[in-house]
Amino acid sequence: MTDHYDARETRDPAQREAELFARLPDVLRRAVAAPAYADRLRGVDPATITSRAALARLPVLRKSELPALHKAAPPFGGFVAGPPGSFARLFTSPGPIFEPEAAQGDAWRGARALFAAGFRPGDVVLNTFSYHLTPGGFIFDTSARALGCAVIPAGPGNTEQQFELIEAYRPIGYSGTPDFLKILLDAAASAGRDVSSIKRALVSGAAFPKSLQEEIKSRGIEAYQAFGTADLGMVAFETEARDGMVVNEDLILEIVRPGTGDPVAAGDVGEIVVTSLDPHHPWIRLALGDLTAALPGLSPCGRTNMRIKGWMGRADQTTKVKGMFVRPEQIAEIGKRHPELGRLRLVVTRSGETDVMTLKAEAASASAALQSELTTTLRTVTKLGGNVELVGAGGLPNDGKVIADERS
Fold it and tell me: 84 — alpha (psi -120 to 50), left (phi > 0) or beta?
């Protein structure tokens, strides 16, 4: 059995990049057939968007905007050219956000993630993600069936009935949250039920800390993590190398400074922005609100696509100070007005019963004049007064945090 799902996973990185950006102009032409994209991309010549630098000039579409956009122009906010009946299934997620499933096989691009986790054709898979209205269950179900697996559509809960299914069908694989896998194993141990057939798992949808990873492994199950969304399906996945997550094929993933569409420096933490090359339902620079950082070099597993560290927190750090919202976009604007600075971080604390803002800024050369200028800019941009603290280059942590609300 081959170590990789297909030859595309081991392409030369330059070849992959060239092929992605050769396809992008046609995807953009199809995107602007939808009214919302036609408006957002007005004046853009798709033929010129053939590089990451060109793509970075297009506006980002924030996932946090989708509920309002979908409500204003149901069901898909004007971002889909085809009618709802042109899709296979139609879902909703909290917001609400409405998501269609494409009609083709492996619509959510998950088969290669399952393969990387050790799943193989002919395996029986217990899928415990919910099948009710939201796409989670179907993302993993259709992905497993595209790989050639048989799926038990169990959904979450009802452990007693799950034990009956496990003992009858002897699934070798599990897909679901890591939390429910532990619940299932604990309940089986307490009830004396045999779930020993499960040897591997692909988990998502919740944190999977090291302690839980070790506990699951101690019970004879090799569990791997995947990062996906209801909009895009599988974005990145862990491999046997256990060294970050490999970005999925047919996606262009960028990491940008929170509150902007500007790519971060190599290795810096930023917000995940994804462009998908699905001509039926393309996403153009969808900002997910999740933080990550790119890893250098190639994965030891032999896959050559970009690697990310995995989920590192939320990028939407908007907070309210003295009754007014302060947003990451405003901190980014301060940085644009002072390009000589490095990282910026607005720290919000309390003094007595009053909110206090302190802008911490990396500066190669600190001066009273610079501090005074920044104090003025801070007030101009946020409409709030605050303190300014200059630190040396590299003095702020590389964690993607732009606003730190430290009020208890």
Answer: alpha
Reported as a pLDDT band with limits 50, 70 and 90, residue 20 is very high
Residue 1: pLDDT band (50, 70, 90) is: very low
Pairing mode, strands 233-238 and 245-247: antiparallel
Report whether 90 contacts 84 (CB < 8 A): yes
Which amino acid, 91?
F
Count of Cβ atoms closer than 10 Å to residue 173 Cβ: 28
Residue 17: Cβ within 10 Å count? 16
Task: Give the torsion sign (CA, 286, 290, 294, 300).
Answer: negative
Q: Match 């799943």 to its residue by tokens.
A: 119
Side chain identity, residue 125: V
- pLDDT score recorded for residue 162: 96
CB 253 within 8 A of CB 259: no
Q: What is the mean pLDDT of residues 206-213?
A: 89
Which amino acid is located at 193 in the chain?
R
CA 263/CA 269 separation, integer angstroms? 10
Cα–Cα distance between 214 and 223 in angstroms, integer? 10
Q: Which residues of 198-209 are buried (b: 16+ CB within 10 A; e: fewer)?
A: bebbbbbbeebe
pLDDT of 323 reads 79
Instruction: Average the pLDDT over 18-31 and give the result.
Output: 98
CA nearest to 402, candidates 314, 310, 274:
314
Report d(CA 294, CA 264) in Å as an integer. Answer: 10
